Amino acid sequence: MANSGGQKYLLLIISLVSYLLFLFLWIGVSFHLSFITQIDDTLIPLLQGGVTDSKTLFFTILTQLGGTIAMILFSLITVIIVWRKLGVRLAIWAGATFFTGELLIPQIFKHITLRQRPDDPLIPISGYSFPSGHAAGSTTFYGFLAILLLLFYLKKKSSKVVVPILFALFILLIMISRVYLSVHYPSDVIAGCLVGIGTITLSAFIYEHGFFRLKNRRL
């Protein structure tokens, strides 16, 4: 990514906008504002329509790839690989990004908001609903993984387009799974995704402006 003119602070702007939109949703949920109900009532029928055993099995398996255990395990493996291949500074960068987007922000707001989950979930579930930890965690982890690949491994222009799109589609499927399985409201998963986007773009901005940079690589 070019680092000149109006683009110099593009990543920071995206991060701030994402966090502000998240806070906007949080205020809406906290004060039971009507636009939250409108979002949920509009999207739930679209995402939960046509429940079948095969779809439920598919989304039950898929949703585990965005769960807390999977995210912690995948993140630890990634941090170790980054440490071995790219050095301790970038390992700290990766670890801080994962911790912030996957655990710190989601857990703080879950325990501040105390939103109850939807009724009649299709899988066993506990804890609070807002924001979706699966959406925040998967957006943070898989989004950051895409950034790492773009920075250090992907060389072909086509792969630099295709790989992020595939990661984005995978994240979207995990988000859909949470609503389909009736363990989150759509506003929960949108908020979680915004947390992830805000975190990885802020992390990328920090890298782009010299912190943790390796061999002057740029996004």
UniProtKB/TrEMBL annotation:
Keywords of this entry: Membrane, Transmembrane, Transmembrane helix
Origin superkingdom: Bacteria
Phosphatidic acid phosphatase type 2/haloperoxidase domain ranges (all copies): 88-204
Alphabetized InterPro entries for the sequence: PAP2/HPO, PAP2/HPO_sf
Stored Gene3D superfamilies: Phosphatidic acid phosphatase type 2/haloperoxidase (1.20.144.10)
Classification via SUPFAM superfamilies: Acid phosphatase/Vanadium-dependent haloperoxidase
Short name of any one Pfam family annotated for the protein: PAP2
CDD domains xrefs: PAP2_like_2
Transmembrane regions: 9-36, 56-83, 90-109, 135-154, 161-183, 189-207
Transmembrane keyword on record: yes
PANTHER family for the chain: AT30094P, SPHINGOSINE-1-PHOSPHATE PHOSPHOHYDROLASE
Identification of the protein by name: Acid phosphatase
Species per Swiss-Prot/TrEMBL record: Listeria fleischmannii 1991
